[in-house]
Amino acid sequence: MLRPLFGGRARRRWIHLILGGALAMPYVLVGSVFIGPFTGVDNVFGSLPLQLGSFALGLPVAAVTSLFPLTRPLESTAVRALCGIDGDALAHGPARTPAERARTAAWFTLHLGLGGIISGMSLSVPPAAATLIVLPLLAALGHPLGLPVLDHGWMLALDPVAGLAGLVALAACAAGCGALLARWAPALLGPTPQDRLAAAEARAADLAVRNRLARELHDSVGHALSAVTLQASAARRLLGTDPEFVREALAAIEETTRRTVGELDAVLGVLRDGDAPGTAPAPTLAGDLDGLLRRTRAAGQCVTATVDTDPAALPPLVSREAYRIVQEGLSNALKHSGAPVAVRIATADGHLEISVENPLGRAAAPRPGGGHGLRGIADRVRLLGGTAEAGPSGDTWRVAVRLPLKAT
């Protein structure tokens, strides 16, 4: 029951309020400079009403000084550390627009106002409460300190209760003010809806880039490793019986690895330099379809290809994504079946049609972190506004894709 008043979060918020009271002291002194001559009183701090007047006069001055650029970052840092507010709910930089400056001024005034009140209570209530708590003991000792005590025993008995109630009331006021500040902090120190929208768009753009890089790495490196593995395995089996095949397999391994290193460097160049191009261009059907088929066949895989369109006439974006789709289809066939693979590429009704078929072979053993190839194909097709189907069709496994030639 006492945790909301004396728990760790309540204590940290109390400290935050006392910090606001400490920040308010210079403004109270500025206010006293004007209150003293106006009232004709030399000692302003000897009168509680004049102290409150100085405090009220200093708050507008605090609102003006809150326009200093570092005010919002410093206040946001204090709120994150002491009020338990998520950092994403608060702005990190200085206020730039008039609306942001107005909210910062409102927050700074609220923080110093409530902080000054709670700080004053924290200085005055505990000594008074302690005095009330020990009054019965002082009365029993014959008031050795000369403090005035009440003669009625029943009233003396209530003094400790009143002292404890004062301490609880102080804690309740501090907890309530701290909760109020914590509630208002995101509204006054947080980003605007436009800022949140811009941040969400930036995160979405970053995620899109990450997904694109993941697809490129999976398709290029994954296909290369699958092809090299099968090429090396076939070369090892035929090392003593077919030297010519072994020579071709080793040459294919060399070409595959060299080309993949270039593609990997291009992808890593995006990671290093934003969207700056790497040292190797992205492969396309027009540029490397024959090489892709040749390297796949060098692994011992029988691949037949029917191309009923001119790859050079395809839009560059469609040609690039189509290359990756064919590459992933061949990679699946290499990993999951040793049967012949049939690739067909054609255009019809303003679409590029791609199909990769192979007889159903042995089931591949699942591998940790694998199995993203078909999802990558689906992502590429969706981004181009096409359709994709993958799955068994009779005795064959078929990947069928339609891409609009005027992809957006």
Automatic annotation (TrEMBL):
Superkingdom of this entry's organism? Bacteria
- Cited InterPro entries: HATPase_C_sf, Sensor_HK_TwoCompSys, Sig_transdc_His_kin_sub3_dim/P
Which Gene Ontology cellular component terms are annotated? membrane
Keywords assigned by UniProt? ATP-binding, Kinase, Membrane, Nucleotide-binding, Phosphoprotein, Transferase, Transmembrane, Transmembrane helix, Two-component regulatory system
Which SUPFAM superfamilies did the record assign? ATPase domain of HSP90 chaperone/DNA topoisomerase II/histidine kinase (SSF55874)
Q: What class of enzyme is it?
A: transferase
- The Signal transduction histidine kinase subgroup 3 dimerisation and phosphoacceptor domain covers 210-274
Transmembrane feature ranges? 14-38, 50-70, 105-123, 129-150, 162-185
One MF annotation (Gene Ontology) recorded for this entry: protein dimerization activity
Tell me its EC number(s), please: 2.7.13.3
- Reactions that this protein is recorded to catalyse: ATP + protein L-histidine = ADP + protein N-phospho-L-histidine
List the protein's name. Answer: histidine kinase
